[in-house]
Amino acid sequence: MSNGLDPALIDVVLPEESGYPDHLAAEDTRENLMAAADDAGAVITDFSNDWYIEPKDRPERARFNRENKMLAFDYVSRFTNQGGGSGVRGTHECTCHSLSRAAEGSLGRARRIAVGPPVPDTKLDVPPGAAPVWLSPLSVYSEANPGQWGGASVRGVLKIAARRGFLPEPTQPKDYGFKHTLHGTCGVGNVTQSRGPWVPVSRFPEGWEETAKHFKPLEFIFPKNLDEAICLILHGLFVCVGRDGHAIPWGDVDFDREIIPYLDSYDVIRADSFGRAKRAVGGSFAIVSMTTPDSWDRPTG
Amino acid sequence: MNRVLLCLLLVCYPAFAEDPPKPLDKSAVLVFPPSLPAVVLSPPKTPIVAGFPKRITVTGLTIEEFKTIPVLVEPSDGVDLYKMQGIDGSLFIEFTATFSGKYTLTCKQNAWRGAYNEWLAAHKTEIPADLLKEFESLVVKSASYPSKFGTCVVEVAGSVPFPQPSPNDPNPDQPLPNNRVSRVTYVWDEDKSAVPHLVAKALQRLNADFPGSLVASEFEDSTVDGTGDVPEQYKVALEAARKAGLPALVIQSGSTVLRVITNPKTEQDVQDAVK
Hints:
In chain A, 27% of the residues lie in helices and 12% in strands. By secondary structure, chain A is an alpha+beta fold. In chain B, helix 5 links the parallel strand 5 (183-188) and strand 6 (215-220). Chain B is built from seven helices and eight strands, in the order ααβββααββαβαββα.
């Protein structure tokens, strides 16, 4: 995915804050993230030997993933867009957009159906039997920051999602008939992401918890260093991380250019250099598994 | 709307007649896709008797997306609505529903209007004369997607059996002829291992090569559904895998376990298991 990636898209620092301010970032240590997951009742998976990929084998694994559509990117069918435009103000929802990629990716990876990679401004033609579920970042952010502006911590949004799950968006690749939905963002959204006004949790649809519980991260893994993060990415997991004012989900590794591409929540793929990634990895996580439905055609039963 | 109301009320007429009309022939029997689960309405619930529908009133949210005919309905002003389905599952669906609010009806498949007209033409002589005009005047309108809808499925009973699933039925949990493989599940324990990438590739390849007829996936041992239970679709595989020892590849034909391979590591392991 990074072949031909414009150098201007590497190590980008956004001109304005997208929702990951320094004071929240400072407390997003690995230990604090793990404590948050534990508090929420999630399982913390150890990075065992089985996850480890020898450095000499990693470039080949990255190629294998690209050839066989087994990148994290291949298990999601859309971008999200928290940004501004057309009279809409950009938002501070980045941690939740990043988290939602990891959640959707985890569901897709377990099903071993490559529905992606996503294409900006495009609703991919996915067979109904393979259709994913699109999860609302706003449904987590509304609780993470009731004041709407100022962003949220990685540990905060992780804990909320692990405790009670996401609401699905009203825009879906197929009609699931969900009883409760919430638009995905207060930002501009896109053809695959619904947008709308700010909604406090108190105004979520009545009974919303009964739907959200079906879209909950169950197990997390917290890489200790860039080595482990890269191995997780090579296993097809998104690794979510916040750095320099913005949170994103890493999803591929380019060893030739030593960059880690990610699906940015602005309808674009960007990348972090290994150097930047090494500084950021301390407060990162991957989702190993999500709640799984009795039937993929009826995700909420 | 009044014509529709009148038409539909009259269509309901047979439900109240002491002598129900002569049962329609098999092609007009009310059946639903076999894979449709039976769910109790709330309230009231009345079974549809195959041959001719009885009246069922559904209040509140509604409408299952049927596999062959996704139909979306918005609430209406207390108008009863019939939809009809032929036994081959390709025509239309019939039930009655009363909603509050305004609704219209649509069908994503293009067969609704044509199929209804064909059905009507074929069964004109069987429909009571005083109802025929109303049947002929039933109008199907297009609709917009009602975002607030949940699911409602009617409980169906009758003397005519449901058709058997075809070999290409997309429901992998139905019993299949000749032990055809319908599910391949790699069950693993995150405490012990990760999913081998060659096994993952093989599963993904199976899904790509057999879309709709085979479901190949991974299932982590402690994964649950939103209610905290083992997901129904994985119960059989999980039990078989735990018995054999994790990680394990469970091959199923419907809900029958054909074989279990412990600790598969390669594509070939998966391919050999599925043969």
